[in-house]
DNA sequence: GTATGGCGCTATACTTTGTCAAGCAATCTG
DNA sequence: CAGATTGCTTGACAAAGTATAGCGCCATAC
């Protein structure tokens, strides 16, 4: 299952890194700058954000455009391969809406609506 | 984007933990025992595997059945919510096949087949 | 005018997450 | 009767992620 090159195994390993899918999801809504992106995805620290963007760029998923070095202005956008991750994000979204309940520790939370009566699920922390 | 309870944000955080999607993918093919599962997903260490299974069980995605304590025999299976992750795994699989190329450092690798001419992508390590 | 904050990062020190190896009691395999 | 296998747990360690400060320059606020 892990030997040789297995596309799905490799994909999971790529997308599984912390913040990666959040980054993609944010960029699916349009180009973003570095800090803007970090804020948008919920406060990723700059060190990790740099690493993720480097890997995503090296993998041909994200494109970086430096519009000006000083004062600094950079844009990050999705490539064709990056845009295609919409399918993955949508699948996760559908699953989340249907099966994920707010954990009881959280307050003021709206329960997701379900049309068909499906057993829902509580997210449990680590 | 991170405040309150957002199903997709929470889903990403749940699925993003190392080994989690590999575990789900393996269980989608049928029930597994603890060591069997660890081997199948490519050598996950028992400590992490225990943690992941605990969280997945607490979240209602995986079900654990102890068939015998001594000698030990346990089965892990997917619940309804777990089975529904097939959609996510499929989406990742489709994306991987279409856009992911084997990294050049790896030998004896089969290039994924593409019908439409799409720009493919090289997976880059950290 | 000058203080303030924002831009895109990097460096450093730190915490959290994941890994490796050994080990347990009991059966089953050779 | 030796050795492997089952499902874990423990403890010491390595790797991954985080928080904070700071850089040089420009825009806006005062």
From TrEMBL, chains A, B:
Keywords: DNA-binding, Transcription, Transcription regulation. InterPro entries: ArsR-like_HTH, HTH_HxlR, WH-like_DNA-bd_sf, WH_DNA-bd_sf. It comes from uncultured Truepera sp. The keyword Cell inner membrane does not apply. This is Transcriptional regulator, HxlR family. GO terms for molecular function: DNA binding. The lineage of its organism: Bacteria, Thermotogati, Deinococcota, Deinococci, Trueperales. SUPFAM superfamilies: Winged helix' DNA-binding domain. The keyword Transcription applies. Transmembrane segments: none annotated. Pfam families: HxlR. Residues 6-104 form the HTH hxlR-type domain.
């Amino acid at each position: 299952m892990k030997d040789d090159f297995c596309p799905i195994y490799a994909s999971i390993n790529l997308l599984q890194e912390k913040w990666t899918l959040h980054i993609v999801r944010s960029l699916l809504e349009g180009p973003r700058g570095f800090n803007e992106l970090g804020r948008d995805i919920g406060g990723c620290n700059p060190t990790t954000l740099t690493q993720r963007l480097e890997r995503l760029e090296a993998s041909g998923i994200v494109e970086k455009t430096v519009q000006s070095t000083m004062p600094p202005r950079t844009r990050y956008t999705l490539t064709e391969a990056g845009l295609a991750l919409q399918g993955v994000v949508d699948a996760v979204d559908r699953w989340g809406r249907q099966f994920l309940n707010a954990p009881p520790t959280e307050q003021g939370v709206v329960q997701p609506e379900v049309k068909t009566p499906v057993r829902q699920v509580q997210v449990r922390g680590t």
